[in-house]
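Predicting holo structure, succinic acid bound.
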Amino acid sequence: MTEDLFPRQPGDPVFREALADGAWLLRGFAFEEAVTLLIEVDRVLQQAPWRHMRTPGGLQMAVAMTNCGPLGWTSDARGYRYESCDPTTGKPWPALPLAFAALARNAAQAVGFAHFAPDACLINRYQPGTRLSLHQDRDERPLDAPIVSVSLGLSAIFLFGGLQRSAPVRRVQLAHGDVVVWGGRSRLAFHGIAPLAAGHHALTGSQRINLTFRQAL
Ligand code: SIN
Ligand code: FE2
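Done. Tokens:
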């Protein structure tokens, strides 16, 4: 796609798209670093492999996940929470790569959230047919810090709703290199991912990888 070959640049006035009050889509913001980011994802996976966590209700999640950074989001019969060690290996989560931290901070800054310092990066893997149902990110303590979400590989339809589950949901196509930032009045907005369409991406094959940066503590 032309859009992929010529990503818009930060500072370009049409580059930021407002999705809601406090929520922004930065198209192509991570495009140039994408190869580096994916190399770092592979490095994380060597220490903390993909796993399908279980919800507190006992259902296995369709999205495969892992984490890097001081804290990692986990879910099991005991509930949703952040842990400093990977329950699968018993070791600390892999360090947050410098390229991840810089990208997350710059994206937050680009839409007015200064000094974003994520201590958690959840890495999600979607394969064709995988979806993530509507939910709020509410396991974090500082609710004044935004969420920064980076899309890599296959495109997906991001579902972005309101503060109530029943609110209307926007459907936004997220392509390789796109970044969404939500905070402020949108911090607790319901969001999700529609079932991933089959496809092939030169860098990820038949997968979409998502990096979600959060300040958990
Ligand atoms: C999430 O809500 O944790 C992930 C969203 C995404 O994959 O874009
Ligand atoms: Fe989420």
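The pocket of fe (ii) ion (ligand 2) is lined by residues 135, 137, 191 (CB under 6 Å).
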